Amino acid sequence: MSEAYIVAATRTAGGRRGGRLAGWHPADLGGLVLDSLVSRAGIDPAAIDDVILGCVTQAGEQSLHVGRSAVLASSLPISVPAVTIDRQCGSSQQALHFAAQAVMSGTQDVVIACGTESMTRVPMGLAMTPGVGEGAWSQKILSRFGVDGFSQFKGAEMIAAKYGFTRERLDAFGLESQRRAAAAIKSGAFADELTAVDIVTPEGKAEQHLIDEGVRFDASAESIASVKLLVEGGTLTAATSSQICDGASGVLVVNERALKAHNLTPLARIHSMTVTAGDPVIMLEEPVPATQRALARAGMKIGDVDLYEVNEAFAPVPLAWLEVIGADPEKLNVNGGAIALGHPLGASGTKLMTTLIHALRARGKRYGLQTMCEGGGIANVTIIEAL
Q: Domain named Thiolase C-terminal: which ranges (predicted)?
């Protein structure tokens, strides 16, 4: 079976809710990334066999197949097909897996995996507007698990309680995310991975958006400790939770045949892909067993991996992952995570992959691992080799 290679990877800088990207339609953000990927790879856009786009809240401006809309908003030929997928927060990471599987099988040679999400214009939960019937979860499902609903926030609090994480430990993690993100921006670590977005400021000034808007450059232990708990008696605050974010990201995936035919230069090779599912109630703990399975399938140990990206949906998630996996915290989210940089839901998968690839190459490192928790108790794991 052929290998799968990533030959281009890019993302927009994140925009805060109601912030610098609020004026952009999510399909247009996706289209901008598609154009950037084609330009970065130096490939004829007509060579793209398919576009697989992840998006979580497929309602409003993200309804009616936003993947196809992104193609139509781009300079790609209208003959390029697309599909929109939802594996919750792992949507574009799963898009990458589907793209890799397609080119490895030889059924397609050049596929874009990407994601877009405007959490300003299409608020989280909009797709759950009650209609006729019982709602998203049937009574049979709720009865099976003895709950009145499923909540990622509750799952995060359950993890904190299970592992004995205190408010103070979570706050320290949140502060470190801010510090690493601020340092990455100041050092120019994101420069090569970002696609500029043209915006007009409230003052009417034309600018390019190139700095993740949510990062608190002045964050301190005192400021984070002052943030109110989200629920009385809990441990989580807004400072230890991922930020609502607007953005888009993507990677261009090819096989060896396309590498040669289009004279492309690979950035990374897909080494291993895994997806697992577990308890839908605690929900966010699944990256732990998913990583254990992924490493076993790849014949690797965590010590073989140079850098990891574990999505910071809530601080207890990567902390639990570190503890059980026995991973080195100095290799985790080295340029900050979603607590500082934002979590644009369906775009986060290829966003994290873009950052992981560029961080590995900048450091001259070889193997990277990416995982994230996903609604319903699912988790994807991708292991790559930087080239």
A: 264-385
pTM of the model: 0.97
Query: Hey, what amino acid is at 85?
Result: I
d(CA 30, CA 164): 40
Paired with 114 in beta bridges are 53, 250
β-strands 82-85, 307-310: how paired? unpaired
* Residue 55 annotated as catalytic: no
**Of residues 89, 209, 245, 358, which has the active-site annotation?**
89
> Cα(103)–Cα(276) distance, rounded to whole angstroms?
22
Cα–Cα distance, 124 to 136 (Å, whole number)? 14
Give the CA dihedral 95, 361, 110, 379, nearest 10 degrees: -20
Along the 387 residues of the chain, how does pLDDT read in single tens digits?
Answer: 689 999 999 999 999 999 999 999 999 999 999 999 999 999 999 999 999 999 999 999 999 999 999 999 999 999 999 999 999 999 999 999 999 999 999 999 999 999 999 999 999 888 876 665 678 889 999 999 999 999 999 999 999 999 999 999 999 999 999 999 999 999 999 999 999 999 999 899 999 999 999 999 999 999 999 999 999 999 999 999 999 999 999 999 999 999 999 999 999 999 999 999 999 999 999 999 999 999 999 999 999 999 999 999 999 999 999 999 999 999 999 999 999 999 999 999 999 999 999 999 999 999 999 999 999 999 999 999 999
Active site residue 373: yes
Which residue in 97, 209, 271, 343 is the catalytic one? Answer: 343
Angle between helices 348-363 and 91-105 (to 10 degrees): 70
For residue 41 the two structure tokens come to 């790879």
